[in-house]
Design brief:
The chain is of the alpha+beta class and 385 residues long. It is 23% helix and 46% strand. The protein has 4 domains: 77 residues, ACT domain (Alpha-Beta Plaits, 2-Layer Sandwich), CATH 3.30.70; 67 residues, Roll (Ubiquitin-like (UB roll)), CATH 3.10.20.310; 64 residues, no CATH class; 67 residues, no CATH class. It has a 5-stranded antiparallel sheet, covered by helices on one side. β16 and β17 form a beta hairpin. α2 crosses α3.
């Protein structure tokens, strides 16, 4: 196969002294093979690149060289070297394949049920991704993270491409499985100091009643059941227990503090091969504080990823400043923290009461909150038999 690429030429050498030609060829590193003599003529084979050298040696010794045959792809290509239309057409074809392999022609969304395709498409457009977008310019890793943050129903998302098809793979939130195996005998244990509001037993024996106070670690539903004949056995306890309990959380905001403000974003792009930039991109911002993100998006040829891509360095620039809050603005910041806390930790619980206790001093604002929460409690604990 390699000989076909290099091109093999069979030569006929006529004249006296062809032994000198063979000796000179050997001394000059010219490879000759399939050497034979017939009817006082020398027949040799060599590679295309050696023809000119052998012709020069032959002239020196008065030998005549005739080309008998040429074999290899290289000779077929040479025949078309002046047919510019074919070359131009091939170049245009390759350009079009590469171009359309790196443009968003179709968006394929997989794994979504709760979030519709239209919502995903709207999200992509809001982030600058639409049909005919240039794929190497899309920060796919960051796009997946943004999608996870934007939709509560999504627990994991990735964006990738196969040629001109942008593929969005989604995994939606599912209820966490029980950590105790389904056939494991267990009790339901309280994880709070609380007062029982409602108890519903699916299996096992209720160890508490509505209105009872329970301590953290006490049994709520026992996995030991006794039949009417007094025979006991262990089962997998299960049920729903709603209880009321209190939690105290403290929030503090100093009147004087250091504040970090984002002052700009700098993006540096370069062409890269195998992840190595073709020119120096070691940009160091003058600002004292910055964060640096680097992404590489490779070009595609049909569904094949090419080793050539666009490397993008993103620098988020920050500066520090001394901030002084008034008691009113500091209190406002505290309540913003409180709202964020409640959205994160109490979104699936009911806050029945909230006692706010302010403890201000000369250095800052301190707010203690005593929450009264109605929520499901209890966890399963194995029974060792």
């Amino acid at each position: 196969m390699f000989n076909q690429v290099r091109g093999v030429v069979e030569l006929e050498v006529i004249g006296n002294g062809y032994e000198k030609l063979l000796n000179d060829a050997k001394d000059n590193g010219i490879i000759c093979f399939d050497i034979k003599v017939a009817n006082e003529k020398l027949y040799i084979k060599t590679y295309k690149k050696n023809i000119k050298k052998i012709e020069d040696i032959s002239k020196r010794y008065g030998l005549v060289i005739n080309i008998i045959s040429k074999k290899g792809f290289i000779f077929k290509i040479i025949k078309y070297k002046r047919r510019y239309g074919i070359i131009l057409g091939a170049a245009i074809l390759i350009f079009n394949i590469i171009f359309f392999s790196n443009i968003v022609l179709k968006v394929s969304i997989n794994g979504n049920e709760k979030v519709s395709d239209d919502e995903i498409m709207s999200f992509l457009e809001q982030n600058g991704v639409k049909y005919w977008s240039f794929i190497p310019d899309i920060d796919m890793d960051n796009l997946g993270r943004k999608m996870y943050i934007a939709f509560d129903e999504i627990s994991w998302a990735t964006v990738r491409n196969s040629g001109g098809i942008l593929i969005v793979d989604i995994r939606e939130e599912t209820k966490k499985p029980e950590m105790v195996p389904i056939n494991q005998k267990c009790n339901v244990i309280s994880d709070k100091n609380a007062q029982i509001i409602k108890i519903k037993v699916f299996s096992g024996t209720a160890a508490v009643s509505e209105g009872d106070g329970v301590a953290k670690g006490s049994v709520l539903i026992s996995g030991i059941v006794t039949d009417k004949f007094g025979k006991s056995e262990a089962v997998r306890a299960d049920g729903e227990i709603i209880a009321r309990y209190q939690e105290e959380v403290c929030f503090y905001q100093p009147l004087e503090h250091m504040k970090m403000n984002e002052v700009g974003i700098v993006e540096k792009k370069s062409l890269c091969i195998w992840g190595k930039s073709l020119w120096n991109t070691n940009y160091i911002p003058d600002e004292k504080a910055f964060t640096h993100d680097r992404t590489i998006n490779y070009f595609s040829f049909l569904s094949l990823k090419l080793p050539i891509g666009i490397l993008k360095d993103t620098y988020h620039l920050y500066e520090y400043e001394n901030a002084v809050e008034t008691p009113i603005s500091a209190e406002k910041i505290c309540f913003e923290k409180i709202k964020d806390y409640e959205d994160i930790f109490y979104s699936d619980k009911t806050i029945t009461d909230k006692q706010i206790i302010k403890e201000n001093d000369n250095s800052g604002i301190k707010i203690r909150i005593v929450y009264t929460i109605d929520s499901e409690i209890g966890f399963k604990q194995n029974i060792i038999i």
